[in-house]
Amino acid sequence: MVRKAFKMKVYEDKIEEYTKRHNPIWPELKEVLKNHGVRNYNIFLDTESCFLSGYAEIESEVKWNEIANTEICKKWWQYMATLMETNEDSSPVSTELKHLFYME
Fold it and tell me: Which Gene Ontology molecular-function terms are recorded (predicted)?
């Protein structure tokens, strides 16, 4: 298992809509995530900076990266693109966070 953390930025005036669109997440997207070995996926919000911190436990980086090539993921990116900073392909601008500490 790999612990993966990353940050993204949601627009301040879109936080409520961002939250609404994740509750619940599309069942088809949830299935793709699970089928690609994603477990314990969380997103946290820093209300002062509007940065989102994502955390997921994944089976492998290869499977994680394959998610981006699925149709449902691309549709999700389009659906969320107006709410956050994105790349040209509508994927979220994301910065991986370096793992420094873990306590079980």
Answer: L-rhamnose mutarotase activity
**pLDDT computed for residue 29 by the predictor:** 98
36 flagged as catalytic? no
Secondary structure class of 49 (helix, strand, coil): coil
Burial (0-12, 13-18, 19+ Cβ within 10 Å), 41: middle
- Catalytic residue, candidates 3, 22, 39, 99: 22
pLDDT, residue 14, reads: 98
Give residue-wise pLDDT tens across range 44-72: 999 999 999 999 999 999 999 999 999 99
CA 41-87-33 angle, 5° bins? 25
**Contact criterion met (CB below 8 Å) for 97 and 43:** no
Least Cα distance to 54 among 8, 100, 87, 104 occurs for 8
Q: Closest by alpha carbon to 98, among 7, 36, 37? A: 7
